[in-house]
Amino acid sequence: MSLRRNLTVALYVLGILALVASVSLIVYTTYMSDSVTTLADALRSVYLAQRAEIDLLAHARTTNPVLASTYEQDLREKLDQAKEVAEGTREVETLSRATKQVKAYLDATDRTPQIRKSDYPEFEPALDALREVVDINLSHADLGELQAQRLDWWGDRIGMTVAALLIIGVGGVSIWLALYAFRPVFAIRDAMREFSLGNRNARVPEFGTAELRIISAQFNAMADSLARQRENQLAFLAGVAHDLRNPLSVLKLATMSTSPERVPIMKRQVDYLDRMIGDLLDASRIEAGQLELRPQDEDARSLVFEVYELFRDLSPAHQLSINIPDSPVLLYCDALRIEQVLNNLVSNAIKYSPKGGPVEIVLRNSENEAIISVTDHGVGIPHDQRHHIFEPFRRAGLTKDQIPGIGLGLSVARRIVEAHHGQLHVWSEVGKGSTFSVHLPGRAGKGNRINIADESVKSA
């Protein structure tokens, strides 16, 4: 089914219904106007004929010549006015005959005024003719009223039918748009948002109209292509990292025979290379779904304290502080992996505070989760780049040229936290520093253990 074709058909149908409603309204109003005009003319004719009849009767009964002359003049005027509004052959002929009968009566009274007027033989035919004119116009009025009622009945039926069809049509189009047009569009939008936020497995279900199915298929094909490219890239990096491990081992051994004053420098550089290679290997394992976890019961306080001990004397320009609760904070986790996450966050806090300053490590127990936060007072992260720092090989624009790194540490850290069913959040302000918070499910007691199946978790 085609979105364009269906919308075109729907618009045509609704347009035809609207046209039918408009034409029906025009025809209805025209016929109603004709009916009202007919009714008005009939009532006017009835009024004039009855007034003529009254004048005839008054003329016949009066003995006053002045009043008789007035009635006669008024009678002739009413008959002339009736001729102007007369319609139909029957009414015209009857009115013409009535006029002749009245004229014959008036002529007779002028010839022999001594006879009582109602006794003239011309009186009764004239009166009957006027009454027939009244009856004809009353029948016209009844016919006009009946026609108006009939038109009103048909107008109501046509109006209700067209209104119902328009409501059904608009409702049907709205439902169809919601089910077959907007819902697939929203699905495409959601998949694109998920994909842009780093979920490389986000795909669009291919349903709806033909155009939207084509767009969904093209998006899915693009996502599959990008996924294949990333897999190839990470496979290449994994191979490079593996090949670099051997010469690094040789370099470590070589530092033992080097002059003592150069050993710390060389060892620091070798450790830095070893860490980058470890990040590459972890990234490749995560993307391949082969991140292995060995969880067990742990006290988060000991994990945090070991990280603090590792870094507290690393940089004289930075003042590390730790804040942990007095009571145990129980976790069911892979201690080495969680320490890897915290090492990365503390190392970044030091690295991205090039001018030194305090670095705070805080552990707190909140309801059924443990929260470990690392805060620095360094360069900060621009707001529009916060979502991207967790993507592989992406680094903040303010520091990527001044501070060494390949942009894998935070990506690996987030995947490890998510593998523990936790979350990694960031708050940052440029020039004031950053706070990274690790939220991990806690273990309040026995039976509330977080399950990590088969000691191995596949990253999403």
Structural summary, described in words:
It contains nine helices and seven strands, in the order ααααααβαββαββαββ. It is α+β, with helices and mostly antiparallel strands and 460 residues long. The C terminus is likely disordered.
Defining key terms:
single chain; 460 residues; alpha+beta; five-stranded mixed β-sheet; rod-shaped; disordered C terminus
Question: How do the strands and helices of this protein lay out in sequence?
Answer:
Elements: H1 3-61, H2 65-85, H3 89-111, H4 123-196, H5 210-255, H6 263-287, E1 296-299, H7 300-311, E2 318-323, E3 330-333, H8 335-351, E4 357-366, E5 369-375, H9 409-419, E6 423-429, E7 433-441
Parallel strand pairs: 2-4
Antiparallel strand pairs: 1-3, 4-5, 5-7, 6-7
Helix pairs in contact: 1-2, 1-4, 2-3, 3-4, 4-5, 5-6, 6-9, 7-8, 8-9
